[in-house]
Design goal:
The complex is a heterodimer.
Chain A: E1 3-4, E2 8-13, H1 17-28, E3 33-36, H2 44-47, H3 56-61, E4 74-77, E5 85-86, H4 120-128, H5 145-159, E6 167-168, E7 171-172, H6 196-207, E8 213-214, E9 224-225, E10 231-232, H7 254-257, H8 259-262, E11 268-271, E12 275-281, E13 288-294, E14 300-310, H9 314-324, E15 341-344, E16 347-354, E17 370-373, E18 392-397, H10 418-427, E19 431-438, E20 447-455, E21 461-466, H11 471-490, E22 495-499, E23 516-518, E24 542-544, H12 559-577
Parallel strand pairs in A: 1-14, 2-3, 2-14, 3-11, 4-21, 14-24
Antiparallel strand pairs in A: 4-5, 6-7, 8-17, 9-10, 12-13, 13-14, 15-23, 16-19, 16-22, 17-18, 18-19, 20-21
Helix pairs in contact in A: 1-12, 5-12, 6-11
Chain B: H1 3-25, H2 28-41, H3 44-48, E1 61-64, E2 67-70, H4 87-96, H5 111-114, H6 119-131, H7 153-161, H8 175-185, H9 191-194, E3 212-214, E4 217-219, H10 235-244, H11 255-263, H12 269-279, H13 302-320, H14 346-354, E5 356-357, E6 369-370, H15 379-391, H16 402-412
Antiparallel strand pairs in B: 1-2, 3-4, 5-6
Helix pairs in contact in B: 2-6, 4-6, 8-12, 10-12, 13-15, 14-16, 15-16
The chains are: A alpha/beta, B mainly alpha.
Amino acid sequence: MARKLPPTDVVLVGFGWTAAILGQELTDAGLQVLALERGGWRDTPTDFAPTFIQDELRYYFRRKLFVEPARETLTFRNAMNETALPMRELGSFLPATGVGGAGVHWNGQTWRFLPTDFVARSHNIQRYGKLPDDNMTVQDWGVTYDELEPHYDKFEYLCGISGKAGNLKGQMRPGGNPFEGPRSRDYPNPPLNMTYAPTLFAKAAQELGHKPFPCPAANMSRPYTNPLGVQLGQCTYCGFCEKYACGNYSKSSAQTTILPVLMRKDNFTLKTQCEVLKVLLDGTGKKATGVLYIDEQGQEWEQPAEIVILCAFAFNNVHLMLLSGIGKPYDPKANSGVVGRNYAYQIVSSVNVFYDDKYTNTFVGAGALGMGIDDFNGDNFDHGGLGFIGGGYLACWTTNGRPIETHPTPKGTPRWGGKWKKAVADNYLKQTAISTHGAVMSFRDNYLDLDPTYRDIYGNPMLRLTFDYKDNEHKMSDYLTAKAAEIAKAMKPREIKVNRRTGHYSIVPYQTTHNTGGAAMGADPKTSAVNRYLQSWDVPNVFVMGSSVFPQNPGYNPTGTIGALTYWAADAIRNQYLKNPGPLVQA
Amino acid sequence: MTSALKQALLAGAVCVAALATASRADTDFSRIQRGKYLVDAGDCKDCHTADNGKPFAGGRPLQTPFGVVYSANITPDRTTGIGAWSGDQFYRALHEGIDAGGHRLYPAFPYPYYTHVTRRDVDDIHAYLQSIAPVSNRPPRNKLPFPLDERTVMHVWNWMYFKDGAFKPDPKKSQQWNRGAYLVEGLGHCGACHTPKNFAGADENGSALQGGNLQNWFAPDLGPDLRAGLGHWSAEDVVEYLKTGRNKYSNATGPMSEVVQYSTSQLTDGDLHAIATYLKDLPKRSQGGGNSGNNTKPSVDTNVANAGKAIFGDQCAECHGADGAGEPIFFPPLKGNNNVQQADPTTVIRVILEGARSVPTKARPTPLSMPAFGWKLTDAQIAAVATYVRSAWGNAAPPVTAGQVAPVREDVGTSSD
């Protein structure tokens, strides 16, 4: 039997990036805010100290920072005619648990989406007549790039992003990304010091007529004090970013940008080891009264709140909505309902580049250290006759040379034994790779729902993921991979190895933790779960943050846009909702 | 009681009479406000609040060389606190180190400094403390060996070492200097840590603020020495340090972080400038006195320094830089660092062993921290790297031996595997 607690103004479900931003913004507005985090407290000096954080075995291979599938997982299948099975080990993606969420172990690649990405449906139809696949459920976001620009800016200055503007208020700036939307000011920090391999990539790309630029990085190119007064140290290029936490305060995360200020506030409370099981609704089903959560001792608590904001990982937000009855569950057969609709992911491929005579020393790395091109992203190129929409960036990163994980060998090398060892030794210091980071559109039969068979540790139906790559994604990814191979050859290496993404989506090998959709935002309540302010159409005192609101997934890493959308929603709550609680958009 | 004390008491009484008019003009509220500020200036909350305890309810153990002394409950609870104390009794405690029951207090309660505080200030402090919520809490009994557990021995101590008397301004100095002196020598009781102590735990004569060792921290020299002291700090640097907890030379940590948190970060810029003015005018120390003149470069074993340099490159350079320049305001520079160059290496050993946390303040909210190395470096390795940082980049301080590391390790309770 749940025990009832005194009410609070706002309850935040989960305590990663989006909850930290909202905690800061809404306590500034004078609200009493409580965050409930299912994992534990984690902080830089106590949990991520540089004396022990660079440990591949402990952190990546033994999954120290990630969610344990034994406690929380989902079931997966490629197609609706298959039976989904539980994912018993992490693979393709690495959600987190604990304070800071997956924002603790990200690389720091912090992009803005293209202006056309936010109007993907109307723009593509306008330019190409129709979408290439009738099952495509690509949508406009209901918010524009221009509306988000100040919020992108705020997030980038919070984080101290290192980069170079390509489009400053409409003025093109040499050396930056010429395809980006106009930005109101330059990045807060200059680009990271570039390592050798990305400069070779940039030179080759330029020779081929592309427009290389330093990729935007949440790794500090210099010591930085953000607008909240929080200090981030200079990156040491140790190459332990993704899958690791930063011990040097050099990678933006909730811990390194917000928590020192937020945790001192009297009107903010964090409870760790408290997992929200359900959002509680009143008799009408139109108003949330609070949440039900379970603590470490197994005691259930009812926490009343005026506003409930779902800030958990994309899967968990959708799962909670389905379990709580917020919004109509999506039914792909009837093509009705919204919650679970428009799940998307990322499609990635790469080309390895091996030199005889050039030491690339990729162990000198940082999570977002690299040069990229955006010539083949979004609708930056003519898709006429190509048979697909969308694209992705190509980049040569030197994120790491972590020896257990990263030791590429040329084509034809055996998987083990003396020849493998020799190939590793010969190539470790003299190789690099070009990666492609492709968009995934949304389709009628890629979606999330409740599994009919498997239940989680609390006895609730697990979330079921039904997903596969479609022709659009394969064609697009092959196109990007061919462009990457072209550049790789122009880098004049001894040899290259092309790693296309072929066949069905597999949940086993690691790809990216860019799981999106399921609670899509939009202008039409028939095809979106939340409105343009990330507010539930059905239960207006519930807001949903994070990539679960993406209607489809553009060809960039999502965190920059997640941050911008969170500030956008926080602004709407502060300046519109609090004055007049209720739907911010009339359905 | 000495005749000097009688005179002082008499002077105090006159003083009270003179201030009575002014006091009456103040509202209770403004007196309480003023008292709150003075309580901050005196850093009272720091010692009088136990870990996880209620503010001012006492019970915090203070490790002295003589044993453990527990701080008193100074909330207005009538039985366990000071709720029943009169203004005169409260003044007597601060001024003479004698409590309301006539018992002599131990100088862990810094009455040898508080004796300099004016009656008006003491009365306002009393007014504030009477206004806070009473907490019933009886602190544990002190753990002192015989005969020190007899408070009457303090009679002898006081006779030998205690000079009472309200602060007397130096007419030759500026008003700002005198305000600084009043705060540093009185409420601020900076010398309680920063002045070396004699065998009886009293301030060493003629060594004021030249650095002192207590609770296995070495509180650095605040004098004008260019290496160990604040000679290279400007008055602005001192103000920034006290206000924000860090400046381009140093980040406050250890016991000083509490001083910054509870006390100096709460003070007005005017008072911080006054403190800086006074500290920047401290006299040069006499040769050989206090915390050593280490202006001649001590000889260092090359093998030890090389071993230390290698460890520094692997473990420390990431933040502090191979050139020891650090990232000022973020990760303190070790080049020219006065904490690193004290003759007594206790602090540098301790920080390597257990790490350090920069105090978070409103101005600088990030508690930038150094990790502990005690678990991964042996005594000899710590001695080598400490020796290296004390002699590299133009630094000069005596080498550190493994034998100096061991007792500090034992005290802070870290072991290497």
